[in-house]
Amino acid sequence: MKAEDFKRINPNIIEIPMDYKAGMKVPARILTSPELYRTIDEKVIDQITNVACLPGIRKYAYCMPDGHAGYGFPIGGVAAFGVNDGIISPGGIGFDINCGMRLLRTNLTLDDIIPIKEKLIDRLYETIPSGMGSKNFIRLNRVELNSLMESGTDWCLERGYATPHDIEHIEDHGRITQADVSSVSDKAVSRGINQMGTLGSGNHYLEIEVARPEGIFNRQIAEVFGIDRDNQIIIAIHCGSRGLGHQIATDYLQVFDKCSKKYGLEVRDRELVSAPIDSSEGQQYFGAMACAANAAFVNRQLIVYGIRKVFREVFGIGEKDLGIETIYDVAHNIAKLETYVIDGREEQVLVHRKGATRSLGPGRQGIPAGYKSTGQPVIVGGSMESGSALLCGTNTADTETFGSSLHGAGRTMSRIKAKKSVRGDAVKERMARRGILVKTAYLPGLAEENIDAYKNIDAVIRAVDDLGISKMVARFQPILNIKG
């Protein structure tokens, strides 16, 4: 079957039928637009149809508009599995467990930032460690790390690193309850114990952005989210569980490589090795993954603590006047137990989101009380030159995509190819001409993350808005960027 023979449900949904590949248990759906469909290559088609072959999958295997090839699952992949007959797969979650986004609002405007922007970015760069292997001001022992992995951001609240408002506005209040520290290896602990409160490397960043009036698509919802003045300063954080999560994924890929044979699980791609959810190995990985997810929530919270400290120092005013508050914190590499109506009845499933964001609609349980009328904020990270976007969840996502939406702009080229296309110093100069100051410990990383290495963020957010699985609220433009 050729790509032109795929079923076009509507201009934004391409369906690949079950007879495309032997072993497919459900159809696969590419959620896209006519403009973006050109960016979906054969590797993505192969990966999402391999996902459709996994045991216990429900309804469809989805690829979001920002989709591109990844490890096992495509980035932008979403799949839900029955808890009694389904699997759990590290390839469906990613190495950077609970990589995610935090968005902060402030009382500041662009006029407040311009006079001190060099001082501000210097102090942020000194305070928030970035780069591969970076370590933070907090020194933990194993007991404290265990407590952090079990308690999530409650650990931060108890020690003065978070406010009750922060906790209320983090997905699942910053704590996945299935965390089991006994399932985390000593090697994973050793890699993560000194990295809490750090950005890391790759595509991670801390960005100061502006909410310009022309970037507000829905002022009523924007105001509910705390975006309530022209040229308001917004702060975006993108990072995850660092070495801890990476080692947990590595550990359990090895475990699953052996046990998948024991359970008779045949996968078309070794990167999709899995275990039954209800097996001992599956439960151990679920418990370890939840530990890494909780650590990632804590990591972003500690970065927020550092940001508040720097802003107090640089502006010489207190917390109340600065008004730095969490709009939302959302995971985009995770698997979670959630309940949806499938074939007319409610069923609990394990939803894998790999480069995809939860997008719960208005009234849905599990979102902050203040957002019940709007739906959950959906934070979309772009490239460091394009800024980010804020959307909100919809009830259409609840019924059509297991409450899921996109997570970012989505890459169009590999990091190696991106580095061959432009030099890091050229990107830095280009950003300066556009009024964006950037600091990084690794100049070639700017080339890896340059704007041409990504899809057009405006195109991908329009696609999910057209699909009805998220609603556009605002776009933000970058002015200061610390590149991990």
Can you describe what's shown?
This protein has a seven-stranded mixed sheet with strand order 1-2-3-4-5-13-12, sandwiched between helices. The protein has a six-stranded mixed sheet with strand order 11-7-9-8-20-18, sandwiched between helices. The protein is built from 16 helices and 20 strands. The relative contact order is 0.17. Helix content is 33%, strand content 24%. The radius of gyration is 21 Å and the shape is globular. The N and C termini lie far apart (42 Å). It is α+β, with helices and mostly antiparallel strands. Helix 4 crosses helix 10 and helix 7 packs antiparallel against helix 9.
User: Using only CA atoms, what is the Rg?
Assistant: 21 Å
Number of helices, where a helix is a run of at least 4 consecutive DSSP H or I residues: 16
Helix content: 25-40%
The count of β-strands is 20
Whole-number average pLDDT? 95
Which structural class matches the secondary elements? Answer: alpha+beta
Termini gap: 42 Å
* Outline type: globular
Query: Proportion of β residues?
Result: 15-25%
Strand arrangement, major sheet? 1-2-3-4-5-13-12
Which assembly state applies to the chains in this document? single chain
List the uncertain runs: none
Major sheet, described briefly? Answer: 7 strands, mixed
